[in-house]
Amino acid sequence: MSRIDFLKQTKRRLLAAAGIGGAILSTVAATHSAHAFPQLNLPVMSAAILSSGGAGPTPAWIAFCKQMPAECALDASEPAVITLNSETWKLLAEVNERVNATIVPVTDQDHWGVADRWDYPDDGVGDCEDIQILKRRVLIEAGLPRRALRMTVVIDELGAGHAVLMVRTDRGDYILDNKRSVVLPWQETGYRYVKREGSENAAWVWLGNQAAPIVTATK
């Protein structure tokens, strides 16, 4: 049995009782009510990232949207930013940590035998974009607007392409990332920001390759 098959089999047994997203959401709800996570102070106010015109999505995103069009739909009646209060900040931190701990990171090449595929990690393994897509689904199920949760393409600290989830808030734009357990303002990730889903229509927007200072990858 290959390593990938072993990981899939193990995760299936662990998550067989419920869907991954539902299981994570249930766990987050339980920890919320039990106060298992410490109270988190709200981050200081920071500037939102600037966009500068339209950008084409990746071919893998286009294929994902053809397969699951509802996942890529934009409802203009939803808020484009969320009000970041203490409960929402705690929710973001918990979902980021829980999903990172639940999904085993593997490349698309090892997982699917292709260079790039965006999909839900329903078998318990996936790469960066799969993990962020799952986080977005859990957050939407918890009541946050899809329009404020934007899939984003960056260049990471190794110079490689990487996907993160950008949460647009009234205190700035924050990043959920499978490389670290904490949620950071976009300026503190050390990444170069290439493009993200737009907030006005289905098109993506160019972020101008804006750079953020380098920070450690784990904290």
TrEMBL record:
Protein name, per record: Transglutaminase-like cysteine peptidase
This protein's UniProt keywords: Signal
Lineage: Bacteria, Pseudomonadati, Pseudomonadota, Alphaproteobacteria, Hyphomicrobiales
Any single Pfam family the record assigns to this protein: Peptidase_C93
InterPro entries in UniProt: TAT_signal (IPR006311), Transglutaminase-like_Cys_pept (IPR010319)
Superkingdom: Bacteria
Keyword Oxidoreductase recorded: no
Organism: Microvirga splendida
Keyword Transcription: no
N-terminal signal peptide: 1-29
Coiled-coil residue spans: none
